[in-house]
Amino acid sequence: MNTAVILTARKENDSDIPYPLKPFCDGVRLLDRTLEILRSHGFQNIIIVVGYRHEMFEKYKANDVQMLVNPDFEFTASMGSLAICEQYINNDFILIEGDTFFEKDVISKLSSVQTGNCIIMTQESGSGDECFVETKNGFVTKITKDRHRVCNFEGEMIGISRISLQTFKRMLEAWRNATNPFLNYEYLFMDVTEALERPVIHFKNLIWGDVDCKEDFSRLSKTTYRALKRKENPFDEENLKNHLQSIFPTLDTSTARIVQIGGMSNKNYRVDFGGCSYVLRVPGNGAEGMVDRYYEEFNATEASKLGVNPAIRYFNPATGIKLADFIENAETLSSATIQHHDNMRKIARIYQTIHNSHIRLKNEFNIFHEIEKYERLLNSAGAQMYEGWESIRPSVMELEHYLNNLGVDLKPCHNDALYDNFIKSSDGTIYLIDWEYSGMNDPMADIAALFVEAGFRQESEDYFLEKYFEGNIPENARAKILCYQILWDYLWALWTVIKEAKGDDFGTYGIDRFNRAKENLKKLNI
User: Fold this and answer.
1) Which DSSP symbol is given to 329?
2) How far apart are CA 7 and CA 73, in angstroms?
3) Do 62 and 109 reside in the same domain of the chain?
4) Which residues fall within 8 angstroms of residue 188, CB to CB, at 6 or more apart?
5) Per 3-state DSSP, what percentage of the chain is helix, strand, and coil (rounded to 5)?
6) Could you tell me which residues are beta bridge partners of residue 440?
7) CB neighbours (10 Å) of residue 367?
8) DSSP state of 339
9) What confidence score (pLDDT) does residue 287 get?
10) Residue 126 is part of which domain span?
């Protein structure tokens, strides 16, 4: 396969520059990245369909790139642009929506499909503009943007597909008889194909996004691209195999297959070795002084005994190197999927199991003490906290007295409820991973972390609390949760500045959390 079509004709509603041409980080543009990926996979016939501000795309013409203009871009949608390519497509091709950002592996997997059509899907993003997908036996049976028409939330379609020449001809024939100029290609694709002609590749934990507005573009710049940079950052395979050799001293680890699988503060790798699959964790920059690995080892092992954490096979508290079982075909929850009712019920039960377990973790996680510790690390790193930090600090620290009056209840807690710390196995079991910051704390701190990290909607918060407390929500629970949300934001803002002083880059993650802490402080009537 060597043909690809990129659709970029759409008129932007809130930008004078088409989003595929706007630099979003380090001078990178969506179109530049897409072309680079296609060329690296041997595509020699690339067609770019333009419309809005078409003159800005002229510089991309090349021996392997044709530029086609859709003169009716303001009065047609994606199928109108695709139909422009009729005279230029003579074989199967990959279709890419120009506003889509994706991992290189998507093109690798799609290029390996030998014949026919293929759709790419991944977990629900929560963007509000999802194209939901339902499947049966590996084939797509339904796509829709109306969540009321979905029986099972399996994921969403992204703007990259493989389309056979035969299917394309059918689509063109149907298009010639269509009376709706605003028809999108994916719906016509569904109309002219049977289910068995729609195989799907399901990427469980894909880093991707599309850009339809300024908010999407900001998310791409601040969050998505930076997450992908961390995931795709080259790693020292020889060094990792040396770690493995120390874990398995009597075995030859030179044949181990290692794939980086992301991580926010640490580097995580999937390791396939000796017929088994593991996750190898290597601590990231600036973890020294923040995490006590001896506490983590004990606490994580206790969580594994409770069945809420995958089994740990090796842990070196001196280095922080950890090896745990890899959960095959597991899906990392997103800010959208974590708020599905079935997932919230399961997470409520996980929290009940942890909080009511009566195990005694090695340490107490006192957020106020952690703030003071991080402030010392901040000074040691020579880093500067955000403007306005000193002015709100007294109000933040005063929350300790307020919480004591409400009543603090120390129980085993995880304390780091990023939604991607929840992984769901193929049998529906949810595990809570990464116990670095665990310790004895108030359970409302755990719940506050869950709500703030995943951006829970109010109705989701209400549903979760109803399930966790089994209908008997204490009067002071919501006040305590708001206090802990402020404290988490304030603490992790400090954490971000320290980590960035050590070389990491989290975009606006830290300042966004700091600003949210300031806003939530205004909501407290104290």
Assistant:
1) T
2) 11
3) yes
4) 79, 171, 174, 175, 178
5) 40, 20, 40
6) 364, 412
7) 22
8) G
9) 62
10) 3-229
Residues 205, 239 within the same domain: no
In angstroms, how far is the first alpha carbon of the chain from the final one?
65
pLDDT tens digit sequence for 376-407: 999 998 899 999 999 999 999 999 999 999 99
For 159, the enclosing helix (H) or strand (E) is strand 156-163
Length in residues, the chain: 526
In a domain, 313, yes or no: no
> Within a 10 A sphere around the Cβ of 145, how many other Cβ atoms?
16
Residue 454 domain-assigned? yes
Both tokens of residue 46? 């690339």
pTM score of the predicted model: 0.80
Q: Based on the domain organization, do 247 and 225 belong to the same domain?
A: no
Query: Residue 346 has which token pair?
Result: 């399961």
- Nearest one of 277, 281, 307 to 296, comparing CA atoms: 281
| Cα–Cα distance measured from residue 460 to residue 462, given in angstroms and rounded to the nearest whole number | 5
pLDDT tens across 155-210, in order? 999 999 999 999 999 999 999 999 999 999 999 999 999 999 999 999 988 999 99
The pLDDT value given to residue 520: 94
The arrangement of strands across the sheet holding 422-424 comes to 331-332, 422-424, 430-432
pLDDT given at position 84: 97
CA–CA distances in Å: residue 63 to residues 43, 295, 303, 387:
12, 60, 58, 51
Which among 284, 289, 490 has a CA at the least distance from the CA of 376? 289
Token digits of residue 142:
């339904």
Residues 193 and 249 in one domain: no
Residues 20 and 140 occupy one common structural domain? yes
Task: Confirm whether 473 is domain-assigned.
Answer: yes
Residue 192 phi/psi, 5° resolution? -100, 5
The upper half-sphere exposure of residue 404, i.e. CA atoms within 13 Å in the direction of its Cβ, equals 7
Cβ atoms within 10 A of the Cβ of 342, count?
Answer: 12
> Please, are residues 329 and 452 in contact by the beta-carbon 8 Å criterion?
no
Angle at 325 between CA 319 and CA 330, to 5 degrees: 125
Could you tell me the sign of the dihedral formed by the alpha carbons of 200, 207, 185, 148, in that order? positive
User: What SS3 string covers 215-257?
Assistant: HHHHHHHHHHHHHHHHHHCCCCHHHHHHHHHHHCCCCCCCCCE
Q: Quick one: which of 258, 445, 436, 227 has its CA closest to 332?
A: 227
Do 196 and 218 belong together in one domain?
Answer: yes
